[in-house]
Write a structure and sequence with these properties.
The structure is a single chain. The chain has a domain at about 1-120. Helices cover about 100% and strands about 0% of the residues. It is built from two helices and no strands. It has helices at about 1-10, 15-220.
């Protein structure tokens, strides 16, 4: 407002000197007005700064008041999350331990099954070996029995053949003896018949000779 009054005053002045004075006064007034404005601006800025600082402190207090529950809630959430994470780690650790325990149990069970399987295979091998040994012994016994039986059968067959041959030979000898006896009897009968014939011939010859001699004697005596 002071600047406007000075300008009005400059317009109303009649002379150049007055005009220069007025211009200088107007410049001084303008400078003073600028300084006053600057001071006012500085004061306003200081006031604004103080107000801003106060507002900032108030705002900070409000923010603290507002943030504190959030921070508390955040801490609670973080603690909850930490507790939850701890629980998860414990659960994971427990699950890992359970898996390891289950794995160890499975390994022990597998080892036990493998041991039982190896033992069963050993028992089976021993049983198969025993069966093969028994079979070999049985086959040997059967073979021995077969050989003995075959030898017995052959011996019995040979004995039967020998007996049959002996019987045949005895029969043949009996037949031959009977034939020889019959031939001897026939020869004896023939000899007896020949002897009887010879005796009869001798008797006839003797009778003939006696008759001839008697006839001759009779003839001689005549």
């Amino acid at each position: 407002m002071m600047v406007q009054q000075l300008l009005q005053l400059e317009t109303a002045a009649p002379s150049a000197v007055s005009s220069a004075i007025y211009r200088a006064a107007a410049a001084a007034a303008a400078t003073a007005a600028a300084a006053a404005a600057a001071a006012t601006a500085a004061a306003a800025a200081a006031t604004a700064a103080a107000t801003a600082a106060e507002d900032k402190r108030s705002l900070l207090s409000c923010i603290i008041l507002l943030v504190s529950p959030c921070m508390h809630k955040k801490e609670t959430v973080e603690k909850g999350e930490e507790t939850e994470e701890k629980k998860k780690r414990q659960i994971k650790k427990k699950e890992t331990e359970e898996r390891e325990t289950e794995k160890e149990t499975e390994e022990r069970e597998r080892d036990r099954e493998e041991t039982e399987e190896r033992e069963r295979q050993r028992r089976d091998r021993r049983e198969r070996e025993r069966q093969r040994r028994d079979r070999r012994e049985r086959e040997t016994e059967e073979e021995t029995d077969s050989i003995c039986s075959r030898q017995k059968r052959n011996k019995r067959r040979q004995q039967q053949q020998n007996n049959k041959q002996r019987q045949t030979l005895q029969q043949q000898l009996s037949w031959r003896a009977a034939a020889a006896a019959a031939a001897a009897a026939a020869a004896a009968a023939a000899a007896t018949a020949a002897a009887a014939a010879a005796a009869a011939a001798l008797r006839r010859t003797a009778a003939t000779a006696t008759a001839t001699a008697a006839q001759r004697f009779l003839e001689t005596t005549k």
